[in-house]
Design goal:
heterodimer, A: Heat Shock Protein 90, 4-stranded antiparallel β-sheet, elongated, disordered C terminus, B: Udp-n-acetylmuramoylalanyl-d-glutamate--2,6- Diaminopimelate Ligase, Chain: A, domain 1
Chain lengths: 136, 120
């Protein structure tokens, strides 16, 4: 799915860096949903300023978010690890690549993550009509 | 150097992307953990790995990796080959172990896409 998203975001004309970071956080979200949930949904909103990614799932939930955010901490199954994931880098990667990161979770119910990736090229141009609205 | 030079240095077999051997290669990243690849690899690098599943190709695609080198004589699964063809990501297979593969490329001028983690 993230491969297709990348193509769409490129078509919109977002810069490479924005597309790459949005694709990475999307991909990590995808892996988390597949690894820990029965059902999940990723919703994207994109315009020329930013990409907003919301990942919501009905899954096991996270008992201790602070611990789960730590690099290297993971509860992944052997099957997930065999594929090269589950090294405890997912959530920290999402936070690393997103400009804005929000997470909430309830054990046995599911997890909600919202991330925003800015088009940082716009930030370099204060004369852009949307500059004031977005970055002050 | 080009991907074709990489192929020669590693005595590698080209499995996908025979038409892309002219690609210029400057940097590389070695890992068997896709999570680490996502955390540290940079655009347009080579990815050296011992993993062969389709997730390797997906990860390479997300990061705009130039080509995948499968080490220790590993060959991609059929599903992996199909996906790589579709996403136009070259896959080469070498019999050298990961350490040797990395060393041979480094000796010939390929450097790590980052030198070490943190405080880049």
């Amino acid at each position: 799915m993230s491969s297709e998203i990348k193509v769409i975001l490129k078509e919109i004309g977002l810069p490479k860096d924005t597309v790459r970071r949005a694709a990475i956080v999307c991909y990590e979200s995808e892996i988390n949903i597949v690894s820990y949930a029965k059902k999940g949904q990723i919703v994207l909103h994109a315009d020329d300023r930013s990409v907003e990614i919301e990942a919501k799932d009905e899954g096991t939930g996270i008992p201790d978010i602070e611990l789960a955010m730590k690099e290297g901490y993971s509860t992944a199954t052997a099957q997930v690890r065999e594929m090269g994931f589950g090294a405890g880098m997912g959530l920290s990667n999402m936070k690393r690549y997103a400009d804005d990161f929000f997470i909430s979770s309830e054990v046995g119910v599911g997890t909600y993550v919202k991330m925003v990736v800015f088009n940082l090229d716009l930030k370099l141009h204060p004369d852009h009509p949307q500059w004031v609205e977005t970055y002050t | 150097m080009t991907l074709n030079d990489v192929k020669d240095i590693l005595e590698a077999e080209v499995i996908v992307g025979r038409d892309q051997l002219g690609k210029e290669i400057k940097t590389a990243f070695s890992a068997d953990l896709m999570s680490d690849v996502l955390a540290f690899a940079k655009t347009e690098s080579l990815l050296l790995t011992g993993l062969t599943n389709p997730q390797v190709v997906r990860t390479a695609d997300i990061l705009d990796i130039s080509a995948i080198i499968m080490v220790r004589g590993k060959k991609p699964s059929e599903e992996t080959v199909k996906l790589a063809e579709q996403l136009k990501i070259p896959i080469l297979s070498t019999k050298y172990i990961l350490f040797e593969t990395s060393g041979r490329l480094h000796r010939n001028g390929i450097v790590g896409c980052i030198e070490k983690v943190g405080g880049e």
